[in-house]
Amino acid sequence: MNQTTESRETVQVSVDVVLLTLIEQQLHAVLLKRAAAPFAGVWALPGGYIHADEDADAKASAARVLRTKVGIEGAYLEQLATFSGPARDPRGWSVAIAYCALLPVQNLPPDRADISVVPVSALPQLPFDHRDIVDAALARVRSKSLYSSLPVHLCGETFTLPQLQQVYENILGEPLNKVSFRRKMDEMDWLEAVAGAMQSGAAHRPAQLYCVKPAFRQELALSPRGL
């Protein structure tokens, strides 16, 4: 009996992470200078191959990439989409599981020559299909900001309601009605006042500081209706 040998190309599987933060009321993305070919020396999204011997799943791979390559832990991390095909990587057919991560600016690592934090409106040309991945992440963040607590992951541990509203507005690119915004926050019931904690300012009376309720620190609060 004749036997046919089928040649199968190895498929590369990796994770890529769009790490976003908010600086001076603008969304910024964290880029990492590639150390090796292809595209050595070019700014790109943090990413790397899945380590089957140590990563419990793709999310663990993404968290490891952020920890070992960027030097951060504790970022909010959400699976975004899968990008695949023969044209996205010159090394051959590949699959990238993309994640979106959010981090308060104060939690960024110290300045490093191989890390750049760039406004999403002024990104350089990115290798592979990384620009498509960034665009998908921005669309996801802006969409979910209309009906969830997602933007809080760009805030510090405590914040005032005006500060939180400003973060929502920075992401959405438009002003929000103060009364409607606060009503929506009350409906989602995910904030709690920090007892005895107020933020004072020279031009305004002291404002109550809030934090996220423990039940929502890893999960998003959702609303059936948009802001």
TrEMBL record:
Domain Nudix hydrolase: start-end pairs: 10-141
Molecular-function annotations in GO: hydrolase activity
Record keywords: Hydrolase
Top-level taxon of the source organism: Bacteria
Signal peptide annotation: none
Xref: CDD domains: NUDIX_NadM_like
Magnesium as UniProt keyword: no
Family annotation (Pfam families): NUDIX, WHD_NrtR
PROSITE patterns per UniProt: NUDIX
PANTHER family: ADP-RIBOSE PYROPHOSPHATASE (PTHR43736), SLR1690 PROTEIN (PTHR43736:SF4)
Record's protein name: NUDIX hydrolase
Organism of origin: Comamonas testosteroni
